[in-house]
Design goal:
about 400 residues, alpha/beta, 2 domains, about 25% helix, four-stranded mixed β-sheet, eight-stranded mixed β-sheet, 10 helices
């Protein structure tokens, strides 16, 4: 038994807004996605028998996308550790708080503990109004061979509006437009055509965006080309909050302890992680040569009495997912606290270490795809052949 059953799949349509990630991964057809499912099945089989049922249940959870990605993150970490020459015990009974971390890892006569946490970008207070997923899917099915649309939700009603009327009016409006004429007008600084649809207490404004000539005429292409922008909270808090949550969970482990963060951020930035762990970099204005330092607001630099010294390192991978597993390199951020047990550096990990003020970086000895026993450019082929697009990027 594996996570995904071997069966005929024929639906190649992109992920729908109302579709759970687990449903999409099990449903989508094509050689690209067959590779993903085959590798997930194989890696799942490498887990011990007692851990397989729970992991499989999380990978197939249609009620929580976060649960799916958290399980995929643990699957990746486990396989990467095995491929780095380690032996891995899953959920070992160690520590002083009566809770079991994810992995006890043995390599070259030493041991260390890895605890996994997958954390997604949190939305800030200024998030624009969003269409219900079912309504997005309905708009995406509007035939629009010559235009994409963007939208702005001006007012949302209490109940989902009737899609038939919306789709009919949107289809008529798009069909009345000439894409070449719109492009010519745009070059003369004429704003793109807009259409405001109202029904009861709903009010949505659409803007037509001409497709380039070579991209026109595809009846399977999505209609929504641009969703409203989303403002987000400070991404450095993602890593900082994740490490704080896990840092004291297991008490005294008496071994090097690494918190592995699957950093799912919209715009991941190494400076955010550096600030979260080592503090904000500042320049002190003085007579003569300016000096640099760090504020005491990082995970390790803000501690007193070595409260965070139990965490030896933080392993960060930006936006981990099957289609990025062989591309996004893990970086181990090492604790500068002299009381921390030193964290080992595996060959496929880059490393960062705080010096007196500056952070020193060390490249990985070998690429991550070699530790996963996968080709560099994996999965091979196109996820969506011409005419298909997806939100799973």
């Amino acid at each position: 038994m594996g996570v995904y059953r071997s069966r005929h799949r024929s639906d190649v349509s992109p992920k729908r807004a109302a579709e759970a990630d687990a449903e999409f991964l099990d449903r989508i057809a094509g050689p690209f996605w067959d590779q993903v499912r085959d590798v997930i099945n194989e890696w799942w089989s490498h887990f011990p028998d007692h851990a397989q049922p729970g992991l499989r249940s999380r990978l197939l959870d249609r009620n929580s996308d976060a649960n799916v990605y958290s399980a995929l993150w643990e699957l990746y970490l486990h396989e990467m550790l095995l491929g780095s020459g380690c032996t891995v015990e899953v959920e070992p009974q160690i520590g002083t708080n009566g809770k079991n971390p994810d992995f006890l890892v043995s390599r070259d006569g030493g041991q260390f503990v890895v605890e996994a946490i997958w954390t997604a970008q949190r939305l800030g207070d200024t998030v624009p109004k969003q269409l219900p997923p079912q309504l997005k899917d309905g708009i995406d099915r509007v035939p629009s061979p010559n235009f994409f649309v963007s939208y702005r939700l001006n007012r949302a009603g209490a109940a989902t509006p009737p899609q038939r009327r919306l789709k009919s009016q949107l289809t008529q409006w798009l069909a009345s437009l000439d894409p070449d004429q719109v492009i010519a007008e745009y070059e003369r600084k004429v704003p793109p055509p807009r259409f405001t649809w109202q029904d009861a207490d709903w009010n949505i404004t659409f803007e037509a965006i001409p497709r380039s000539p070579g991209k026109r005429g595809d009846p399977t292409s999505r209609t929504i080309g641009i969703h409203p922008a989303v403002w987000v909270n400070d991404e450095s808090n993602l890593v900082l909050d994740a490490v704080k949550r896990k840092g004291r969970k297991y008490g005294d482990l008496a071994l090097p302890f690494i918190v592995a963060v699957g950093h799912a951020a919209i715009f991941p930035d190494v400076e955010d992680t550096k600030t979260a762990l080592y503090g904000t970099s500042v320049e002190y204005a003085r007579v003569g040569t300016p000096t640099f330092g760090r504020m005491l607001d990082g995970y390790w630099t803000a501690t007193y009495d070595h409260a965070h010294s139990r965490v030896s390192g933080v392993l960060v991978v930006d936006n981990p997912a099957p289609w990025t597993w062989t591309k996004n390199a893990p970086v181990l951020w090492r604790s500068p606290d002299p009381k921390s047990l030193p964290a080992p550096i595996l060959p496929a990990w880059a490393a960062a270490q705080l010096g007196e003020v500056q952070v020193e970086h060390q490249p990985a000895a070998r690429p991550i795809h070699t530790a996963l026993s996968l080709p560099k450019h994996w999965p091979v082929g196109d996820a969506f052949p011409r005419g298909h697009q997806s939100d799973m990027t």
